[in-house]
Amino acid sequence: MSAAGALGRVIRSAADRAATAGSEVCELCAARLAGEHRHLYDTGTAEPRCVCGPCSVLFADDTAGRYRLVPRRRLRLPPVDTAVLGVPVGLVFFVPRSDGTVTAQGPSPAGAMRWEVDAAAWRRLAGTVPELASLAPDVEALLVNTVRGFDAHWIVPVDDCYRMIALVRREWRGLSGGGRVWPAVEQFFKELTERS
């Protein structure tokens, strides 16, 4: 069989898998994904990518490359005084980066708003909350919700944070958010479960 024939078969196979109606596909190999699937964090685009089981295994130990496997750990924390980080919103997540910087991101009707956080302030806070020092750079976050009397602080994989951003965008109505967004956010937090 010619190389051109084999390549054509691979391309057609990938296109067939991608064209399957109503199904998500692996963003690396185009294999059909199960409802529950893993994510890789793409350091080049700073976005999570949906991946199949084999592709997630392929990058499981690559902590310095372009793609990093997003861990599954979730850990509920006691209240953390994030006011020292200077971010004036109550629904936010903090991500330490591989280069030593720390970003804060909060959902809005237009997507995520992003701020740089003082790295020294983050290190001081991590000195008082040891679990924060264990966050895997780029792929784990401190997720905080102190809106409307809610008080939740979690270490979560970044894909949970992006799910929360998508939820806010989907449910937001008008200038103030409407009546659906905050109950949906509270439900999101109630459904978080600890896992290692």
Counted up, domains total 2
With strands numbered from the N-terminus, the spatial order across the biggest sheet is 4-9-8-5-6-7
Strand residues, percent: 15-25%
Rounded to the nearest angstrom, the distance between the terminal CA atoms is 48 Å
Shape: globular
Roughly how much helix do the residues carry, as a percent range? 25-40%
Can you give the mean pLDDT?
86
Strand and helix order: HEEHEEEEEHHEEHH
In brief:
InterPro entries: DUF5947. This protein has 196 residues and is an alpha+beta fold.
Q: What features would you describe in this structure?
A:
It is a single chain. The chain folds into 2 domains: 3-69, no CATH class; 75-190, no CATH class. Helices cover 31% and strands 24% of the residues. It contains 6 helices and 9 strands. Helix 5 (158-171) packs antiparallel against helix 6 (181-190). The protein is globular.
Map the helices and strands.
Blueprint: H1 3-19, E1 38-42, E2 47-51, H2 53-58, E3 67-69, E4 75-77, E5 91-96, E6 102-108, E7 111-117, H3 119-128, H4 130-133, E8 140-145, E9 152-157, H5 158-171, H6 181-190
Antiparallel strand pairs: 1-2, 1-3, 4-9, 5-6, 5-8, 6-7, 8-9
Pfam family, one: DUF5947
